[in-house]
Please model this.
Amino acid sequence: MDSYPVILLLSTKIPPSVCRRQTSPVHTSHFQTYLTLFHRISSEPKQFWLIKGIWVTQSNAQYPFLVNKEDALRAKGVQAVQKMCQIARLLNAATLYVQPGRINPRGPWLPHPENTDPATVERLVSSLRGIASAAESEGVCLVLEGHVVSPLPTPEKV
Model:
């Protein structure tokens, strides 16, 4: 199984011993860790966080783009988000943030004329269908990212 970094938005400060890399010392912090962290606490991960006074307000993961033109990479992205639905439920996360991805090979935050093409949007919709069923079965609320350089550039598109 592929391993992708997990990003959690937490409602309290995290001690560095809990995560590999703390990216912000402020009270609401993001940090990255790997799915292996959850294997160490897999018996009751929700209890692990709650005992430490941490409430996961948003979970997220880095994964292959859901709009990728390559079917195999797009499928890996869908599988990663489906797995993240399970993890979000185990952590009792309020939401799971879903990033559609972009087409520009120079970077995800750079515009590209194909970002909003009907074919790109259709790949996104197809990916989201597979993810939505996993989220529903896990009881997880999905939050879909929209941005001017994404396949969902306006509130109407989202």
Observations:
- Strands lie at 5-10, 21-22, 30-34, 56-61, 96-98, 142-144.
- The CA atoms of residues 115 and 151 lie 5 Å apart.
- The chain has a mean pLDDT of 74.
